[in-house]
Design a protein that fits this description.
Elements lengths: L3 E2 L11 E5 L4 H12 L3 E6 L2 H14 L4 E6 L5 H15 L4 E4 L5 E2 L7 H27 L6 E5 L12 H20 L6 E6 L3 E2 L2 H4 L1 E2 L3 H13 L5 E2 H13 L2 E5 L2 H12 L1 H14 L13 E2 H10 L3 H20 L16
Helix pairs in contact: 1-8, 3-4, 4-5, 7-11, 7-12, 9-10
C-alpha cells in the first residue's frame, strides 16, 4: 500500500539536522537537495571524497544559504558510522533525521555470481542500514522535534528480480529491518519510514556492477532504468521520499509498476513467480565456464555495449536510456571513479 501513516506530529523539517548516507550521487544527492529546500542542515556521507566534494559544491550552488557538510564514511564500518553521527550532531546541535540510502547494485545471472557478491550486497545495503539505524537512534531519541529514520528499500526487496539477486536479498532484509524497527520504536517519539522505489532515472546504470555477458546486461538494465514507461523521474522520487519523512509515513512504494508488482506478489504469488521466471529466460545467459570476465562498472562497459549492438538496437537502447543518461550528469554519476562511494546507485 502506498502510504501507511504513523501518528501525527509536527511535520515541519525547517531548522532540523539531517544525515544522508550514500548522499554523493543519485537518489541520495537528490534527497539531500530536497531536505535543504525545506530548511534542514544536511550532512552527506559516502566513501569517495572527491565525489563528496563535487556533490557538496552542487548542493551549495543550488542552495547558497544552506548548510551542507560532507563526511567520508564507509557504512560497512560501524565505527565510521558512529563517528559520522557524532560529528553531524556536534556540528548542528543534535540529529533529527537520518536516511539510510547507501547501496550497490550487481547485475548478473546467478551462474556468474558467487557467495562474495551476496556478502558484498549484504554488508553495504543491509548492514549499512543496520549501522546507520543503530548509531543514529541515540541522537534521534533526543530530538525535540521527534526523530525521523528513513530506510531506502526497493521493489526488488519486495519481489525478487532476476539478475539482481544479491541486491534483492539485501533489500528484502532492509524491508524487514524497517518493519521491525517501527514496531520496536512505537511510542518512542522516533518514526521509521520505509521507502521502496521502483526503477528511477538516476543514472544508476553507470555506477552498477555488471557480470556475465556484461555488455548485454548493461544494455537491458540501462534501457529499462531509463524507460519512461517503467521508471520514475528521480527528482520526483526524492520529493516523495522527503515528503514521506515529513508526514511520518510507515511504508511507501514508489512508481505504478512497483506498486503493481507488490500487489501482485501479495495477491497472486505463484503468478508473480512465473512472470519472474519468464523474465529470467529472456535475459542474457552466463558465459561458459572460464569465459566470464570480472564484474565492471557500467561506465566502463558502456562504449563496448553500444559497439556490440546492431545499429537498430543501438538506436533503440539509446532512445530508451536517453533520460537516464541525461540524469547521470546532473546526479554526479558519470564523473565518479570506478572505486567510488558506497552511495546508492539507485
Amino acid at each position: 500500500m502506498d502510504g501507511l501513516f504513523a501518528p501525527k506530529g509536527d511535520r515541519s523539517l525547517k531548522g532540523l539536522s539531517a544525515v544522508v548516507t550514500g548522499g554523493s550521487r543519485g537518489l541520495g544527492l537528490l534527497v539531500a537537495d530536497r531536505l535543504l529546500a525545506r530548511g534542514c542542515a544536511v550532512t552527506i556521507a559516502a566513501r569517495d571524497e572527491e565525489e563528496l566534494e563535487r556533490a557538496r559544491g552542487q548542493l551549495l550552488r543550488d542552495h547558497p544559504e544552506g548548510s551542507v557538510r560532507a563526511v567520508r564514511c564507509d557504512v560497512t564500518d560501524r565505527g565510521q558510522v558512529t563517528a559520522l553521527m557524532r560529528e553531524a550532531a556536534a556540528a548542528h546541535g543534535g540529529l533529527d533525521v537520518a536516511v539510510a540510502n547507501a547501496g550497490i547494485i550487481q547485475v548478473a545471472p546467478l551462474d556468474a555470481l558467487g557467495p562474495e557478491d551476496f556478502a558484498a550486497a549484504a554488508e553495504t545495503i543491509f548492514m549499512g542500514a543496520v549501522h546507520t539505524s543503530l548509531e543514529a537512534l541515540p541522537w534521534l531519541r533526543r530530538s525535540p522535534a521527534g526523530g525521523r529514520l528513513g530506510l531506502i528499500g526497493s521493489v526488488g526487496g519486495l519481489v525478487a528480480a532476476p539478475h539482481l539477486l544479491p541486491y534483492s536479498c539485501a533489500k528484502s532484509a532492509v524491508a524487514a529491518l524497517a518493519e521491525g524497527l517501527h514496531a520496536e520504536l512505537a511510542g518512542s517519539g522516533v518514526s521509521v519510514t520505509a521507502v521502496h522505489p521502483g526503477l528511477m532515472r538516476t543514472g544508476s546504470h553507470l555506477a552498477a556492477e555488471f557480470g556475465g555477458q556484461r555488455e548485454k546486461e548493461f544494455g537491458w538494465f540501462s534501457a529499462a532504468a531509463g524507460s519512461p514507461l517503467l521508471s520514475m523521474d528521480a527528482r520526483r522520487a526524492a520529493e516523495r521520499v522527503v515528503s514521506s519523512l515529513e508526514r511520518r509515513r510507515i511504508r511507501v512504494v514508489l512508481t505504478p509498476a512497483a506498486r503493481a508488482a507488490d500487489l501482485g506478489h501479495g495477491v497472486a504469488p505463484r503468478l508473480t513467480a512465473r512472470v519472474g521466471a519468464l523474465a529470467a529466460r529472456a535475459l542474457p545467459t552466463a558465459p561458459p565456464d572460464g569465459e566470464a570476465a570480472a564484474q565492471a562498472a557500467g561506465r566502463d562497459v558502456e562504449a563496448a555495449a553500444d559497439r556490440g549492438l546492431h545499429p537498430v538496437l543501438r538506436r533503440a537502447r539509446s532512445w530508451a536510456a536517453a533520460l537516464n543518461d541525461r540524469a547521470s550528469g546532473r546526479l554526479n554519476q558519470r564523473r565518479a571513479s570506478s572505486g567510488g562511494a558506497k552511495g546508492s546507485p539507485a
